[in-house]
Write a structure and sequence with these properties.
254 residues; alpha/beta; 11 helices; single chain; 16% strand
Length: 254
């Protein structure tokens, strides 16, 4: 039985799990793959029985992504929508090997959290050593909270160095459900994800599940991330999505 067959069998078990939030989601402001408004996303979060939702639209270097003014004004957005506690962040693009982002610190500091990711065609993939160095440089930005889809096989990494740097810089590494999905387009991400999950257990350092939902369809869906975590024996207390307050505490320490 392969990974996705096991995952299909465990889908009902994943639904029975209690996850309280999803903070890697995209609205129409990301410019592709979604026509959903923030309110639409809050409705979807409520339908999935989430307590908290984070909106993290793509930064301005993404074709059609959010403009700087959009992110600058998120600090004025509603803190609760339809009974869902709201966080407002960004999936900022890493734009060079030095780890620079496509949003300035003046904007980043006004957000609740920042996911830093590498995307085509903004970044050209390097070697595993070069890509790892780039991610580590991005982590050094005090406003970066999460490294996004660092399992992308097109941007290979050294997961051991990456995890050590995440702990040192108080940054979360996400287990991206979209990457692990059979419809995923980032290549075979399972090895990197399983290494990261095993390191989480070994060092008792938490990980973050992310849907990476573009629109409402997959908000709060961690089916494949949860199965990978079960394979690695990750306890619930190391999966931050099980407690909204634990995430807020982690961000406050940042």
């Amino acid at each position: 039985m392969n990974f996705h067959q096991r995952t299909h069998k465990s889908h009902n078990a994943e639904r029975a799990e209690r996850y309280e939030f999803d903070i890697h989601t995209h609205t129409i402001a990301s410019g592709h793959g979604s026509s959903a408004t923030i309110t639409d996303m809050a409705k979807a979060a409520g339908a999935r029985n989430l307590k908290m939702l984070g909106i993290s639209d793509h930064g301005p270097a993404t074709p059609g992504g959010g403009r700087v003014s959009y992110f600058r004004n998120l600090k004025y957005a509603q803190r609760e929508r339809l009974g869902i506690r709201m966080l407002y962040g960004a999936e900022a693009n890493i734009v060079n090997s030095g780890g620079s982002l496509d949003l300035g610190d003046d904007v980043l500091k006004s957000l609740d959290y920042v996911i830093a990711s590498m995307h085509h065609p903004i970044m050209k993939p390097g070697s595993a050593e070069e890509n790892t160095d780039t991610y580590i440089n991005a982590m050094k930005n005090p406003y970066v909270s999460v490294i996004g889809h660092c399992d992308d096989a097109r941007f290979p990494v050294d997961p051991f160095r990456l995890f050590a740097a995440a702990m040192e810089n108080h940054v979360l590494l996400e287990i991206n459900n979209s990457s692990l999905s059979p419809e995923g387009y980032r290549g075979d991400t399972r090895y990197t994800d399983l290494v990261l999950l095993n390191l989480s257990v070994h060092f008792s350092y938490p990980v973050l599940f992310s849907s990476d939902s573009h629109g409402t369809k997959h908000v709060g869906d961690f089916t494949y991330a949860a199965e990978a975590a079960r394979l690695a024996g990750v306890p619930r207390n190391l999966i931050l999505n099980c407690s909204a307050e634990s995430l807020l505490g982690f961000l406050a320490e940042k």
